[in-house]
Amino acid sequence: MPTDVIMPQMGESIFEGTITKWLKQPGEKVQRDEPLFEISTDKVDAEIPAPASGTLRDIKVQAGNTVQVNTVVGTIAEEGAAVSTPPAAPSKPASGDGARAPQPASPPPPKAEEPQAQGKIPADLSADEKTGLERQQQGKVEEYAEAGEQERVRSSPLVRRIAKENNVDLTKVAGTGIGGRITKDDIEAFVAKHGAGAPAAPSAPSAPAYASQAASAAVSMPAVTTPLQPVGGVTPGDIVPMSVMRKKIAEHMVMSKHTSAHVHGVFEIDVTRIVKIRERMKSKFGQATGNKLTFTPFFARAVIHGIRKWPIINSSMEGDNIHYHPAINLGIAVALDWGLIVPVVKSAEERSFVGLQRAISDLGERARSKKLKPDEVQSGTFTITNPGIFGAMFGLPIINQPQVAILGVGGIVKQPVVVTDQDGADSIAIRSMIHLSIGYDHRVIDGAVADQFMAEVKSFLQNWNEELL
Q1: Is the peptide bond preceding residue 402 cis, with omega within 30 degrees of 0?
Q2: CATH number of the domain located at residue range(s) 244-462 in this protein
Q3: Residue 172: pLDDT band by 50, 70, 90 thresholds?
Q4: Is the pTM of this model over 0.70?
């Protein structure tokens, strides 16, 4: 008897989901609990496992469609059962306001270039010119073949970009992600171990030589260049629908700007002591806990310290009342290849430094592998976001409603700084500096309170005295 594949309910408040991608096609074998398709809801994106082993018999709801929970979206035939693969047909949008037109999983290569890769050689060219043009065309054919093979490997656009930049064949990289997906860590570890690969094909003769030959034969030979590939698998000029996650981010951010009276302040902080502690302890910490030591738990501990003194930072508005939350639920923003999500470390004030690092690492990894549960992105009372990871000096983030404050972490850079010793003498020293920004809702928090909270955070970081282990 075939097994129905249904749209799961990812939380009590979630009533529909959008299928963003099928990971298997009709006629392909599947194993129980193997990722079968990806969905997007207004809370999380997730990979949905197969409910049984067998062969995917059919897909009833194509990628791009939104359906109610418990809707049958496909069926799996028992192992050994005969399966007929019907020809692909355009899917009809699911009924309801949330229905969307299906989108192809990945666009085919531009057809305009295919004839160029396999075109005929003009008869009036010299032998050298024919040889050169044949090499160009062969390179194009190999490039298309390689691109198709790379696309079949389960990986994100970011991973494919890193592979292309380092001339790495993704079929040679072992994936540790869900269903064998190649993660960013996998490709970076491969490049670090094996180095950048050699170019896939020998470079063509220099442009001047071809230019002179082409001029004599009145044939224009284009220069061979490697165009910069856009991130995200998009083509400039395309018009694509916003994903469910992108729509929810847009709605939430606009609502926050309309709701809160946003004010920002920026503090410059000397984190030389923390940088040295992390450098000295990161190896021991990794061996003892199995987790990489990052800077985030340092900032989380400083925020917890500041909130204990200024609990209004950890509040929210409820009508004309201010609700002071008893627990500090820290939201840690995680940048994904397809958007942004903020998983929450519940009751962060009850955790040790090691506990914070473990929780932050676990939530971040499961966010990237689409394994978060809906309740793990809810009930946050304060958010930490890190624009500095990509080199920004600081950011002015939008408050994550219904919270009333958010901390932006800038990049750590070494700078010449005037320091004063105990005797009052000034000197110039090289210090590790960072800019932290506080965004707060002026309806609830006054500027003086926000600044005093940040002064506590600054003092805690500059005078760090907690043991990590």
Answers
A1: yes
A2: 3.30.559.10
A3: confident
A4: no
